[in-house]
Structures are given as C-alpha cells and as structure tokens.
Sequence to fold (489 residues):
Amino acid sequence: MDWHANYLRRATVILCAVMLTASAYFLSSGLHRIWWLVWLAPLPVLLLAPRLRVWQAFNVALIARALGALNFWHYIRDVVQFPLWLSLATILIPAAMFAFAVAFYCGLMRKGNPWLAILAFPVTMVAAEYLFSLSQGTFINTGYTQLTDLPILQLAAITGLWGISFSVNLLPAGLAVLVSAPARLRLRMAAALAAIYACVLFYGLLRLQTTPESSNSVLVGLVETHAGQNIFPPDAQATIALMHEYASQVQPLAARGAQFVVFPEMSALIPDSTSAKVDELFQNTARDAHVQVLLGILHITDHGAYNEGRLYSATGEIETIYRKHHLVPTWERRSTPGTAISVLPQPAGRIGIEICRDMDYPELARRYAKQQVGLVLVPAWDQGIGVDAAWHGHLSLMRSVEDGFTMVRDAKNGLLTASDDRGRILAEESTRSDGALVTMLATVPVRHDSTLYQKWGDWFAWVDLVALIALLVFWLANWRLQLRRLDES
Fold:
C-alpha cells in the first residue's frame, strides 16, 4: 500500500512538472509571447530532474517541451503549410535539444557537481541552438523571446543572440540548484548569479542611455499591400494595373519629403515579358518624384524564379537588383537564391537591402555591418496581424542590435516598422484586412555603431561548444572511473 501511494505521488509530481513547464513554454515561446515567463519555464522540470534517472529526465523533458512547442502547430501546418515531416521536425528537434540539456544537468547533479550542472544546462541549449541554426536559421532561438526586454536585448551587441539565450537559460538552472545544493554552497551560488545579472543589466541600461547622436537621417516612405486580393494578379494586364496602383503612392509620399519609398516583398509576379514595362513604369515614377524606390517582385525567367528587390534611383536608373538569399522551405522551393549583397553609398551614409527571411540569419547582416552600413531596407511578407506579424516581423530587431544599424521593414500582410540600433521601434503601422493600401513616413538615422559581435561574430556560441565538449568529457571520464571502482570492489 505504501509503495502504491509513493508511486501515485511520484506520478503526480512528474505530471505537474511536465504540465507547468509545457504551459510556460507554450505561453512564452510562441507567436504571442509573455517574455518574462520563459525565464522560469524550465524550472519545474529542472527541480524534478535530480530525483530521476538520466533517461527518465530526458523523457520527461522531451514530453514537456514538445507539448509546449505545439503553440506553433497551427502556424506551421495550416498557415505556412509545412509537410508533416517538417512540421514534426520543427516540434521535436527543439524538444530533443531541451531534453538533452535537462538530462546532462540531471547527470551532473546526481554525480554531486552542482556548479557544473548550473553551467551545463545553458551551455547545452546555446550549443544546440547554434548547431541547428547552421542549416535552418535562428528562428527557434530562445534569445528572440526577449525582443521587448530592451536592457537584456543589448547583450546581443557583444555576444549576438547566443548570450541572451545563455542568460535566459542560466537563471532557472541556478534557481533549481540553489534549492537542492548544500547550504554551504547556496550563498556563493546566489552571489555569483546576482553578480552576473547585475553586470548584464548595467551594460544594457548603460547602452540604452548612451545612444550616439546621428548627424545624418533620411525620411523613408513605406507602402503596404494586403495579401488578400493582391497576392498575384492572374494575367499581365491585371499585373500592370496593380503596378500602376502601387506607383501612384510614390508621388504623394515624395511630396511629403520622402527620400526613399519601400514596397513589400513580392508585390507582384513579374514574368520576363512584363519586366521591361514594370521597370519603365517605376523608372519614370522615381525620376518624376525625384525619390528612390525599392520594389519587391517575384521575377520569373526561362532560367528560374528570383525573389528580387529592385532599387530605382532618383534619376530613373535601376541602381541595383538584390536577390533573396534564404528562401522559405516548400513555398520557395522553385526559386533560385541570391549570393551577393547590395551596399549603396548615399549622401547620408551606406544603405543595404535584405528580404524577409534573410534577416533570420545573422551572418548576412554581419556582412553589411563590415561594410559600415547604417540603414538596411527590408521588403517582407508575413502572414497577418493576428498570426506572425508581431513575431516574425520583429525578429529582425535582433540584427540591428547585433550589428549596429537602423532597419526599415515593409511587410505585406504584416507591419510597417522602423527601428534603431538599440532595438527601439521608432515608428510602426499595421496592415488593413480590407486590402486597402497603408502608407507610413518615418525619419530614421543612418548611423553605423560598431559592435563586438560585428567584429568577432559567433564567438560566444563557439565558447559554449567548447565548454559543452569539456563538460561531456568530464562527465564520461567520471562515469568510467566509477565503473572501474565498482569492478575493482
């Protein structure tokens, strides 16, 4: 009877830990985030882990994190329309990463190494997220949950988003160890954690208060087209009519002082047979309004499809054609990625161009930063105000902080956003579901503020990888030593 009662109590505790962690991740890591909750989300499972065997801790953590990741299921299956295998991978890979980190933490705690256990959890999370990003981008990274926490966000200027992920995951590991560590260690552990977070907050607040003054700025006009009726016109005549509607928005914005006018990603599908007419229209429009125009199109040729951003100069020339580098899986499988960046010297400073998902990849933004770019213009396409506009639409704020440039992002079916190199939103407008055009004017600084991340790149992620290997070697060596002692006895 006692064993049965203990079994039920244990099962109840495990179930509660799973549901608490799953619920916290569900609310803090999805499309609509409660940013502070992710700091506590792993805590129930981490508190439980030392009372379980390593394989049990892995399974409990895997279930909890997979349940929490279901906040993306409707989005990836019904909105983005990923195939089943890719949808499952999007859910299970982050869950497996989390489970491995918890299991590693559990193993070190059970071996009596609380200091190493505190490090093991965040180190493993950062290393796993970095390795995943090498092929699939950074969109699952924990650091993105802190986009509205501006003091913590400034850490990206030193470490990239990896340092933010480390900070978020260090706290629950530290709190869990403090609960179960010997009393003689608790004061030192608490002091160490307090010192770390005091330094992080001090740096963040100081950087926010010491934003450099910018002597140069430009007035940018943005025009948004809702995806509904304007996804892609059915024929050339309708396409040209739509292009004339877009072009008609340029002169009014120029009359209000706009120096650039930006349109969203894939404003229309433009075959080669129509391309020259579209170029002529926007060359004339840019020249007549004496304003530079950035038009996003899907260009269809005999050789393939290209997601392009075409910049028309104020003198009526095609100044550059930028092609999107990082294409959306399944949706853009027939398109050809670009490889070159577009750096445009201007009187106000250097300006660059990226398109939508390119901003999910830190290395492309660093290429612009190394060219001293002070403003990046980003045509984009999101899936709606109530869907991913606030999530995916704001991920690119991280690139601005990491690499010290201003960003202007114009998203079809999303948000028109201007932000500075501290991640502060300078101006923002939302789309209209009735399909009406929305315009916005924003005065933005053109200033490049060099950062350590720009110079050293993913150095913090590499430190975590080395630390993970060292911790694994220590754990395995300790495990073998104990096995040898058991054999000898």
